[in-house]
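Weekly modeling sync, notes
Attendees: S.R. (lead), two postdocs, one rotation student

Agenda item 3: backlog of single-chain predictions. S.R. asked that every request posted to the team notebook include the full sequence so nobody has to chase files. The rotation student volunteered to paste the first one in as an example of the format we agreed on. Action items at the bottom.

Example entry:
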Amino acid sequence: MTRSALFSGAVAVMFSVWACGSGHGGAYDAGHNHDLHTEEAGSHGLTDPHDHGAEHGEAVEGHSDEIVIAPEKAAAAGIAVETVGPGEFSGVIRTGGQILPAPGDEKIIAAPADGIVAFSGDYFEGSTVDRAQPLFSILSGSIQDGNRLGKAKVAYETAASEYERAERLVGDRIIAQKDFVRIKENYENAKMVYEALKPNADGTGVSVEAPFKGHLRDIFVNEGDFVTVGTPLACAVRGERMTLRADVSQRYYGRLGEVVSANFIPQYSDSPLNVTALGGKLVSVGQSSAENAFYVPVTFEFDGVDGVIPGSFAEIWLLTAPRKNVISVPVSALTEEQGLYFVYLKMDESCYRKQEVALGESDGMRTEIISGLKAGDNVVVRGAYNVKLAGASNIIPAHTHNH
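Predicted structure, as returned to the notebook:
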């Protein structure tokens, strides 16, 4: 026998010994002679095949459905395990919808005067703003009808001067009380008009300010545009509260009275969110659908959080009354191969086994397991694909224990 053949035989024997079955009773036949393998390996200079495998931190299969990963390698790969057991699992209606600002949480900013738009800073859609922060100036000095701000200022200053004079005269009964009341009214009206225009810093135009702290969702004008009173300039969004509108098929109308909460994933994210966990609640269930539509709206309101963008679409799971004694696993525990679904069970400190499961309903966060798992099973819930890759990367055939 050549030296190469002897070395290949030793390697094959080493991996047949270092398999998951050696770590827990019953995985190997009682009559299987492990000492024989160890003696054969020792005759070729591999006195401790277990240490040899651990030194290299390799993941190998013992049986065809068992994978060995050293504990330190599992920790480095972020593999985490959950012990499953029966619990509550809500009924689910899966649909789609949209994330929108809550009523009163957005505001259209309109032009308070006729004039030319001048931006008060570098603003773009999505820019954050503070309350009373200047956004635009409306310049009307070159308009044919005249400077509205200038006219308001003149009217205000004239009314203020007349009011001050009347205050002195009414005390000496030089003017009648009813005339003083009229002068005072004119002054207050002129003051209100002038201050409502909010002159900008240099007094050349009307300042338009942010109504609250938030961000600019839309900007409708460009620098130099001519606008009239009431023209929309921008849309500001506070972002403190949001709504989730689910568009539900009419065939589920009979179940909508059972809806209590919802999970959702924005279209740009992979992380599911729960309405209740975000301080939200069910607001309304539509009693009719819009004309030519086949959906009934179900609306939730929740606290705004970073990373949730108003206006974005979302995948939604409406949650109904919970069912008891259901075994479920996080969605991250599942892997799929050719239409079949699998999880990975942790058998002992370093051994994992692939297990096929049949799925029931999913709420976007967890999935019901109809068969394939039992209470007490230790399921890999994070890093399942790392375990799958470890099993697929083996180049040495598994030891089958066929005799």
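Discussion: group reviewed the output briefly. The helical segments are 3-17, 34-42, 49-56, 71-76, 148-171, 177-197, 384-392.
Action items: rotation student to repeat for the remaining queue; S.R. to check formatting next week.
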